[in-house]
Amino acid sequence: MTRSAEQGHTRIGSTPETSGVPIDCVLFDLDGVVYHGDRAIDGAVDGITWLHEHSIPVSYVTNNATRTAEATAENITRLGIEATADEVTTSAQVLAERLAERFGPGARVHLLGTTGLRTALETAGLHIADPADEDAVALAQGLDPEIDYRKIVRACEIIRAGAEWWASNPDYSLITDTGRVPGNGAFVELISRLTDTEPVIVGKPAPNMMEFAADRLGAHHPLMVGDRLNTDIEGGRAAGFDTALVLTGIHDIHDALRAAPERRPTFVLPSLRGLEPLITGGDRGDCPRIEAELRRAWDAIDSGTTDAEAILAEGNLPRTITEAHTAPPPTEEEK
Predict the structure, then answer these.
(1) Residues 284, 278 contacting (CB under 8 angstroms)
(2) Among 24, 29, 232, 252, the one annotated catalytic
(3) Does residue 135 have an active-site annotation?
(4) What is the mean pLDDT of residues 239-244?
(5) CB 3.0 to 4.6 Å from 185: which of 58, 120, 172, 280, for a disulfide?
(6) 176-200: buried (b, 16+ CB within 10 Å) or exposed (e) per residue?
(7) 176 has which bridge partners?
(8) Alpha helices, DSSP H only, in 196-286?
(9) How far apart are CA 240 and CA 136, in angstroms?
(10) 29 in catalytic set
(11) Mean pLDDT score of the chain, rounded to an integer?
(12) Catalytic residue from among 31, 144, 227, 252
């Protein structure tokens, strides 16, 4: 139901380079990868701290448009992972930049969203229009935790009146400590059905944020790590990057098996603790076997000789992976 803001520049379905070139930066989604709600996911602090200790740059690319980059970095730091605003790229920032490029500074824009998107729009030099303003050129939509019937009706009226509709991301749900809750995509779908219109979406799976973050770091072989095949993995592949599906959020190995080619990850990780052996070539436990089974299965599915359900019936692919815990090197006394 959606289209990318830069469809003409994407490389959807491209095969990432896996020729042994060292990974020189790691890009992370946040929800379901680094944290759930207000707590760090097991393995996240260990994995990212190891990257810091080995001077491997990191960047956080998030579809969450409710927080500013500064607030997002502060939240990550509170979890025990040192982060700065320069290491964060949000869909709100990308949306504001694209609107400023299209309409110019000072353009009047309706806002359906909260602090993160408002701050990004104002920083980009755009004017937030009053809800009653009929002259605004666009409606910018991000997740609004206080959305209500009145706001939805007004958004539909603005779109029908001819304003361009731009949205930060298509994520239908978010994971919290109490389970899944509606994400921006749930309200995008509702408004789309009510108006028979589709927005321009700038967040993942469009490659905009990944390309911006990698360029800012000067990276040549980034790794995109996420928990969603339809946003993180598809977006990373669209940018031409290697991707890793981490099994701490929305999607699992069975979902990866059923995924369309443009949503298939290069690697599978039980948690971010698995980054160290992936990058160093250490013991990854059962991960290499699972990845090989997935590649074999995808080849068979694509050739039409079998389907995902028949492969699952073979029993070789679990939903998740038990982490390998490599023994520490022996001490001098133990040698």
Answers:
(1) yes
(2) 29
(3) no
(4) 96
(5) 172
(6) eeeeeebbbbbbbeebbeebeeebb
(7) 179
(8) 208-217, 234-238, 253-258, 275-280
(9) 36
(10) yes
(11) 89
(12) 31
